[in-house]
Amino acid sequence: MRLSQFLMPTLRENPSEAQIVSHRLMLRAGMIRQSSAGIYTWLPLGFRVLKRIEQIVREEQDAAGCQEMLMPTIQPAELWRESGRYDDYGKEMLRIRDRHDREMLYGPTNEELITDIFRNAVRSYKELPKLLYHIQWKFRDEVRPRFGVMRGREFLMKDSYSFDIDAAAARRSYNKMFVAYLRTFARMGLKAIPMAAETGPIGGDLSHEFIILAETGESQVYCHRDLVEFDVLATEVDYEADLQPIVDKWTSLYAATDEKHDPAIFAQIPESDRVEARGIEVGHIFYFGTKYSAPMKATVTDAEGKDVVVHMGSYGIGVSRLVGAIIEASHDDAGIIWPDSVAPFDVALVNLRSGDAACDAAAGDLYTKLRNAGLEVLYDDRAESPGVKFATMDLIGLPWQLIVGPRGLKSGVVELKRRSTGAKEELTIDAALARLAAKG
């Protein structure tokens, strides 16, 4: 994509309404624009990041045996009355009436709807377990939406739901999601630590929230240092095997948010192994048994032909929230530093002197060859000064910058910069292409 044709309205100054780093940088980088309080338009740069995060989430859900579907954003109020949550949920739920005066709502979550789908589709224990998910926009009418996409009113969520014959089988589904979440966040370059959590309005008696460490995090967290250093992706996972040992490995060490922190227990950890930091929640998993299936009569027949109420769990990842969370965890004074796996483009190709015949020819040739190598390229072909171009590319944080200038071309070299470290290297054009193609 040529930057001269790309919609990316960057800002030089920090917007006054942005209170946290991710909100400031997303506005400055031209990723989002506010439509109304807590509701944002995702501009092309931001939307590309959103889709890459969504795809990693999808791949890990599929690997764990989940089946993707898509549920509507508007739900009938009668389902929520069946579960007993319609009047309990509060003003965060947007309640509406259609033209026939039927009560509807803009879904803040989907436990009721998925339970209704299941009870009308599954009859026998032989069809269990079922793991279903979708990635869909949600709406919660926050009283004080703030921090950009970190706490907006409209947001993109991945919700998955498990249905099992009993508590033991439900725990196996829970463990699958536990492990899938660890892998999902690790693939995004994040260190996510599972911490025992309150179940809140979802209900149930088993819950973990996944927290990434970031200096600007919303919560104070305490954990054992080993949890930060575990390599989640070092080994492949067999989701049909017993995953309890993996879960035990992660839950046997101390990890707590300030809400559940026990200073006495934490003090028993050797001081060198104690980590006190700020953290951001990026995912939450729940097992809640028959909280929804019992009142909504979601049953299957067991081996003896008797009706049995199924056990359920739900598992959420804030896809749009993750965009902000990654920036909070990965930035510097110059701008965003995208992990390779979620960056909107792989390479920034910077032509330092657009209009110069040699620079235009070399940059154009590189642009074609990089794209043919399977790399996503943002080609800065604007008639701007080198300083403006460097500042823009540091701001938007693409993993690699390939810089073409008249002085280098005379020596037969281009400059390759790694955004995360700032390391620069002069290479021949062929060597630079080979280096980047190996990353593609």
Tally of helical segments: 13
Q: Helical amount among residues, as a percent range?
A: 25-40%
Q: How is the biggest beta sheet arranged?
A: 9 strands, mixed
Structural class: alpha+beta
Whole-number radius of gyration? 24 Å
Q: Kindly, what is the distance between the CA atoms of the first and last residues, rounded to a whole number of angstroms?
A: 16 Å
Report the strand count: 23
Please tell me what the overall shape is: globular
Which whole number gives the mean pLDDT? 94
- Uncertain runs with pLDDT below 50, 5 residues or more? none
Percentage of β-strand residues: 25-35%
Oligomer: single chain
Can you tell me about this structure?
The protein has helices at 21-28, 44-63, 77-83, 111-119, 167-187, 225-229, 244-251, 263-267, 319-329, 357-372, 386-396, 406-410, 429-439; strands at 32-36, 39-42, 67-68, 74-76, 94-97, 103-106, 130-139, 154-164, 192-196, 206-213, 219-224, 255-257, 274-289, 299-301, 307-309, 311-318, 331-332, 335-336, 347-351, 377-380, 400-404, 413-418, 424-428. The protein contains 13 helices and 23 strands. The chain is globular, with a radius of gyration of 24 Å.
Set out the fold topology.
Blueprint: H1 21-28, E1 32-36, E2 39-42, H2 44-63, E3 67-68, E4 74-76, H3 77-83, E5 94-97, E6 103-106, H4 111-119, E7 130-139, E8 154-164, H5 167-187, E9 192-196, E10 206-213, E11 219-224, H6 225-229, H7 244-251, E12 255-257, H8 263-267, E13 274-289, E14 299-301, E15 307-309, E16 311-318, H9 319-329, E17 331-332, E18 335-336, E19 347-351, H10 357-372, E20 377-380, H11 386-396, E21 400-404, H12 406-410, E22 413-418, E23 424-428, H13 429-439
Parallel strand pairs: 3-7, 19-20, 19-21
Antiparallel strand pairs: 1-2, 4-6, 5-6, 7-8, 8-16, 9-10, 10-13, 11-12, 11-13, 13-16, 14-15, 17-18, 21-22, 22-23
